Amino acid sequence: MFWALSKHTALPRLSSATKPITARALHLAPPFLLDDYTPRYMTLSSVDAAKKRSDAYTHLRNCNLCPRLCGVNRYETTGMCLIGDKAKVNVIAPHFGEEPCIQGHNGSGSVFFSMCNLRCVFCQNHDIAHQRNGQDVTPEELGDWYLKLQDVGNVHNINLITPEHIVPQVVLSILHARDQGLSLPIIYNTSAYDSLASLQLLDGLVDIYLPDFKVWEPATSRRLLKADDYAATARESIKAMQAQVGDLCFTADGIAKKGVLVRHLVMPGFEAEGAQIMQFLAEEVSKDCFVNIMEQYRPDAYVGRSKRRAKQSEENQQEKGEDEKRYSDINRAVSADEISVVRKAAATAGLWRFCDSAKHDGFNL
């Protein structure tokens, strides 16, 4: 049985000679502790399941689910994501690179989908999200892979990574796997560039939403993500996710089962936008929102590449020295001070549930 002090726990009054006791702000505490958990899709009625199937097929014939609103028939052609009626899968495997409460001891059953509906110039997974590499799979084949991850991989959950552009296929795959015996929680691991219509279709099927809120200003998202409306879309999407599944909750083994976990990758020079994101989460989502402030940014994808320019003589090139680099302002690692600014802003806003490294040798709860 787990007993833990939450941030609201009343502490005994101490004399001035007594060393102060600091309440441990553990996230594995009531009301975030579950006795047991049944995935949401297992309680979905046959009528609701049939309606979701019908809606998914309809959207494939007129693709208007993601914010790009391409409107194409994906049985015949593709839109911006360059993916048709079949999902293209790059990797399917137990994954140990997620948050401890997601990967646990056995790993997260991760499915990395190729392509994306964003074009982040710094994408840390650009070899997957920017390239059409992998195997085409039908929704039924995809659902069968979930079962293999469950029965052979013994993973804690099914983790769908970058699925924003294939929501109809994801819906059909979950419903197929449910009928075949799937019983693991579903994680929707997203950039947060999701429409409210796609989230409505996913309602009742997804247990954990894992959105990555990247940047705040439209000018920044236009330049770095190639989507003017990213921040506005992410705000509405995360509020909708919270309305569906609430704050992140765990069973006593420390594994997350339902709720929202928001990631923010701190970007060099954009700590002020990170602070605004933290304020938004506290004020408009929940002060109990579970947040992972990530430090692992590195220049990647198009960052640091030489700028294209007209051919010049060798003499001119030597005079000008090294080639100019693209996106030079983010062509460096993030600093400890920048990370600290975002973390302090989160705490000041009232957030307290963070994905921090364990300060002991045991499992990171």
Automatic annotation (TrEMBL):
<keyword id="KW-0411">Iron-sulfur</keyword>
<dbReference type="GO" id="GO:0051536">
    <property type="term" value="F:iron-sulfur cluster binding"/>
</dbReference>
<dbReference type="GO" id="GO:0046872">
    <property type="term" value="F:metal ion binding"/>
</dbReference>
<dbReference type="InterPro" id="IPR007197">
    <property type="entry name" value="rSAM"/>
</dbReference>
<keyword id="KW-0949">S-adenosyl-L-methionine</keyword>
<feature type="binding site">
    <location>
        <position position="123"/>
    </location>
    <ligand>
        <name>[4Fe-4S] cluster</name>
    </ligand>
</feature>
<dbReference type="InterPro" id="IPR058240">
    <property type="entry name" value="rSAM_sf"/>
</dbReference>
<keyword id="KW-0479">Metal-binding</keyword>
<dbReference type="InterPro" id="IPR013785">
    <property type="entry name" value="Aldolase_TIM"/>
</dbReference>
<feature type="region of interest" description="Disordered">
    <location>
        <begin position="304"/>
        <end position="328"/>
    </location>
</feature>
<dbReference type="InterPro" id="IPR040085">
    <property type="entry name" value="MJ0674-like"/>
</dbReference>
<feature type="binding site">
    <location>
        <position position="120"/>
    </location>
    <ligand>
        <name>[4Fe-4S] cluster</name>
    </ligand>
</feature>
<keyword id="KW-0408">Iron</keyword>
<feature type="compositionally biased region" description="Basic and acidic residues">
    <location>
        <begin position="311"/>
        <end position="328"/>
    </location>
</feature>
<protein>
    <recommendedName>
        <fullName>Pyruvate formate lyase activating enzyme</fullName>
    </recommendedName>
</protein>
<dbReference type="InterPro" id="IPR016431">
    <property type="entry name" value="Pyrv-formate_lyase-activ_prd"/>
</dbReference>
<dbReference type="GO" id="GO:0003824">
    <property type="term" value="F:catalytic activity"/>
</dbReference>
<feature type="binding site">
    <location>
        <position position="116"/>
    </location>
    <ligand>
        <name>[4Fe-4S] cluster</name>
    </ligand>
</feature>
